[in-house]
Input
Amino acid sequence: MLIGINALLTPDLLHALAAMGHGDSIALVDNNYPATRGRRTLDLAGAGVVEALQAVLSLLPLDSFIPNPAQVMQVVGDPAAVPPVLAEMNAVLAGCGAKPAQGIERFAFYAAAADAYAIVRTGERRFYGNVILTKGVVPPPESRR
Output
């Protein structure tokens, strides 16, 4: 346990977040997500995706050089739908000053997640509790003032 670090951030997840570079992505997915689709799968079985998103965003800057640094899986058959879990994730993103997540088609989401640095499988049981985040830059200390 570390001071100031969200307890959901396991040693493996902290390593993944620190090892990622600008433009790398990480996928936070629900409990139904097929884990065989990614290169590296980390489990947060005791956490929902919203809590995992809050924890990750406490350390991970989102990419400000691309239009959609957060992407979610669209509801199959109703791409404009906003399930409650997505509304909650968008509220977390808004709290970080980010715009709402962009919806992408299911198989496009799978392809994008397969290219992610890591897939974090949460204990989320609600459908469509999936988001891909693209890491931004961490500015040097003198420019953070």
Remarks:
- Strands lie at 25-29, 41-44, 70-73, 102-104, 118-122, 131-134.
